[in-house]
Design goal:
Helix content of chain A: over 70%
CATH topology of the largest domain in chain A: Tetracycline Repressor, domain 2
Shape of chain A: elongated
CATH class of the largest domain in chain A: Mainly Alpha
CATH superfamily of the largest domain in chain A: Tetracycline Repressor, domain 2
Protein name (chains A, B): TetR/AcrR family transcriptional regulator
Keywords (chains A, B): DNA-binding, Repressor
Order of helices and strands of chain A: HHHHHHHHH
InterPro entries (chains A, B): DNA-bd_HTH_TetR-type_CS, Homeodomain-like_sf, HTH-type_Tx_Regulator, HTH_TetR, Tet_transcr_reg_TetR-rel_C_sf
Number of domains of chain A: 2
Oligomer: homodimer
Largest interface: A-B, 30 and 30 residues
Largest sheet of chain A: none
Number of strands of chain A: 0
Amino acid sequence: MAIDRKQNIIDAATKSFSLFGYKATTIEQVAKLANVGKGTIYTFFKSKEDLLDEIISSVIVEIKETAEHAMDPDRPFLENAHRALYRIAEFRKQHPLTIKLLQEIRDIGTPAVQEVMKRLDRAIIAFIREKIDNAIKKGEIRNCDSEITAFLMLKMYIALNFDWEKEHEPLPKEKIAELFELYFLKGLSK
Amino acid sequence: MAIDRKQNIIDAATKSFSLFGYKATTIEQVAKLANVGKGTIYTFFKSKEDLLDEIISSVIVEIKETAEHAMDPDRPFLENAHRALYRIAEFRKQHPLTIKLLQEIRDIGTPAVQEVMKRLDRAIIAFIREKIDNAIKKGEIRNCDSEITAFLMLKMYIALNFDWEKEHEPLPKEKIAELFELYFLKGLSK
DNA sequence: TTTTGACCATTTTGCTCATTTAGTCATTTT
DNA sequence: AAAATGACTAAATGAGCAAAATGGTCAAAA
C-alpha cells in the first residue's frame, strides 16, 4: 500500500474538506488519513491553500468533462447550452465538496475558499463563453458579447437553482429549460 | 422644537443606521440624536427591529415612487421595465442606508438586517410583477410566469450592476439597457 | 533521496469578568 | 390625565488572557 503518496493525500484532503470544510480540517488530520507524515504533504504542496487549489483544479476538469458529455454536436446551440449549464448546476448541488465549501462561504466566509470558488466560477464562464463564441462563428446565434452572456447564463442558472428555492418550491428541470429558452432564445416580444 | 417626536426618532435612526449600521447603533444613541428620552422610542416602536422595519417600509414606498416616476405610459413595456429597474439599482447603489445595510449583511450578516432586506427585495419583485401582469393583459408581451420573470429581471440587474463590477469595469447605462432588451425582448435567435 | 515528526511562531479557542445594551416601569413633567 | 423620561434589570457583548491547536520548517532517520 501507499504507492501513490500524492494521490493519497489528495484523496484524504478531498474527503476531509467535504466532511468538515476547509477551515476545520487540519494538515495533521489529512496526513493521518493519507497515512503519511505531515512533512510529506509539504513536499507535494507548498501550503494548505495550494492543496485546496489543486483539488479544485481537478473539480474544474471534472465539471468541464461532465458538461461536455451532456452536449450533442447535432443539437442546436441553445439546447446544448441548457444541458451543459443544467449539469453544472446539478454538479454543484450534489458534489459533497462544492456543497460543503459553498456552505462554508455562507457561514464563515473563509477567504481562501471564496477565492477558490471564484476561480471555479471563472472557469465555468470561460467554458460557456467558448461555446458561445463557436455558436456565433457558426452563425447559430446572433452576435453578442460572449463574456457577458456567459456570465448572465451562469447567474440565471444559479438564481433558478439555488436562490429561487430560498423562498419557493424548487423548479423542475423542464421549467428551467423552458425559461432558458424563453429568455435566451425567443425573448418576450410577440 | 421637538414637535413631531416620532419623525425625529425616525430621522435620527435613519441617520445612525446609515452611518454606523444597524448593529452598531444603540437605542440610547438614537434617543440622544432625536432629543428624546430612551423610553419615548418605545412608545412609538415596540423594538429596535420594529424601528428598522418602519424605516425600510418608507424606503420601499420611496423606491416604488422613484420607479413609477421613471416610467412613461406612452412608451413600450420593456423600455419602462428597464427604466424602473435601472432606477431601483441606482437607488440601492446611492442611498446611504441601503449601502450600509448591504455592507453589514456581507460583513457580519446581522439576521434582522438580512430579514429586512429580503422584504425589500420581495417588495421590488412584487412591484415589477404587477407591471408584467399589466403588460401581459394588454398584450404587450407574450404570456409568461410573472413571478419568475420579475425575479429574474431583478437578479439580472443586481448581477449587472453589482456582481459584474467585482471582476470587471462597470457597465455603462446604455450597455445594460441593450443587454436587457436583447435577453428579455429579442432573445439570441436570428 | 525521500520521508518524517519534533519543533517554532502564530492563531485560535475557551474562559472570565466588566461593560454595554435592549427593553421596562415607577416617577416626573406637561 | 397623558406623555415623557431615565434609572434599573436581565441578557448580550467584548476585552483580556492563558492554554491549546495549527500551519509550516528542518535536522534527523529511513
